[in-house]
Amino acid sequence: MNDNIFAAMPAITQLTRAGRLQEATAAIQRALGGYTAASDATGHAERPEKAPIEGIFHVINNDTMSSTSRARHARPTSTGPQPEPVRAPREAPLGQFITGSYTNHAGTRAYKLYIPGGYREQPLPLVVMLHGCTQSPDDFAAGTRMNQLAEEEGCLVLYPAQGQGANVAKCWNWFNAGDQRREQGEPSIIAGITRQIMKSHRVDPQRVYVAGLSAGGAMAVTMGVTYPEIYAATGVHSGLPYAAAHDMPSAFAAMRQGKSQGNTTGVGTENIRACGPEVSQLLVPTIVFHGDRDTTVNPCNGDQVVAQSQVQSDHDSANVQSQANARVTVQRGKVANGHAYTRTVYRDSSGGASAEHWLVHGAGHAWSGGSSTGSFTDPKGPDATKEMIRFFLEHSIPSRH
Q1: What is the pLDDT of residue 222?
Q2: For the chain, what are the domain ranges?
């Protein structure tokens, strides 16, 4: 644990309340200076990796708390998606990138939606993308190149945006107990945005997916656990398992060494059962990417995400059915002039892949195969975006067991 962050908390809180958010973020980074970047493969070697604050810092000023409290009594509302000029990356997609917002009892969040050029009111798959700390929908879209692939495959892509009012570093609050439950906190907001897009556009309800990076990856796991009737599969890049932490200190601990318990398949099992039988008995296929030199989120968290995804919980007892019957295959490869990787596939009795785990050798805390036009990317790794879309489109809700 880094004690500097606790010593710096009063000053950080004062800066946040004064609206001096850039100075507050800089203070966080100085306090957590003991963490170092795993690599300089993001394409921005001159910029130190901001990962020390990935997914754990939460300072809200009193004004924000008051507005959030008022929002708890509001009915779910939204502003309709409004077209916005696209700041196109080098490989510009042909569709539209539009904005909107959503409000429910837990608060308000903005979002962006990519609509492929071939959309003609036919039902399309929907991919929900949850960015990491300090990122934005535009940055995340540029780095992952998800919109380009969605144009090719015919998918809608939704990017909910975390605001600095909810977390000064724009991290999804995956580590807060109040943001780990169905119909509560941020999961209710993200699910609400997803449902809103499913109503406003022709979405294939059997092919809705959620993915994220780091804090966003941890929240993607949370969404798959708490809303398995919405999301047919999850993609987790450099993330953590469900309910791996319940506050800031436990978040730091999980990021550094994973969930400290002997039975990693039991991580969050009690929370899963608490969601109810209609949720806890559903198994959501999961694809995981993680760099084995990630010094921000320990790679063992990727192992725990996979193990957790293979557990089907009986809500009436503590019995769990693990991957004992799964068929496991291991493939090793290497990207030309790039990183080597190990891909482990878990197949169920029907031969379908219930989980994939890509361990990227030599990679740090960055989106594998991403574009240097966005932050936290490693162009030398296997293409996580392509592999996630491929995995997603292999799964739909009726195919679950």
Answers
A1: 98
A2: 35-317+359-399
* Among the listed residues 287, 292, 128, the one whose alpha carbon sits nearest the alpha carbon of residue 194: 128
Q: Are 67 and 262 in contact (CB under 8 A)?
A: no
For residues 370 and 387, the answer to whether their CB atoms sit within 8 Å is no
200 three-state secondary structure: helix
Judge whether residue 271 has pLDDT over 60. no
Closest Cα partner for 48 from 58, 60, 33, 59?
A: 33
Nearest to 210 by CA among 239, 248, 176: 239
Q: Residue 211 corresponds to which tokens in the numbers above?
A: 């993915």
H or E segment to which residue 209 belongs: strand 203-213
Q: What pLDDT, on the 0 to 100 scale, is given for residue 1?
A: 42
Edge-to-edge, what's the strand order for the sheet holding 233-237?
77-83, 96-104, 107-115, 156-160, 124-130, 203-213, 233-237, 286-291, 353-360, 340-347, 327-334
What is the Cα–Cα distance from 309 to 321, expressed in whole angstroms? Answer: 11
Return the structure tokens found at 101. 């917002």
Match 């909107």 to its residue by tokens.
Answer: 100
Using only C-alpha atoms, the chain has a radius of gyration, in whole angstroms, of 20
Contact status, residue 235 vs residue 220, Cβ threshold 8 Å: yes
Phi and psi (nearest 5°) for 285?
A: -55, 140
Q: What CATH superfamily classification does 35-317+359-399 receive?
A: Alpha/Beta hydrolase fold, catalytic domain (3.40.50.1820)
**Tokens read off for 127:** 């991919």
Give the residue carrying structure tokens 């039902």: 123
What distance in Å separates the CA atoms of residue 19 and residue 261, rounded to the nearest whole number?
40
Q: Range with the lowest mean pLDDT among 140-144, 172-176, 259-263, 328-332?
A: 259-263
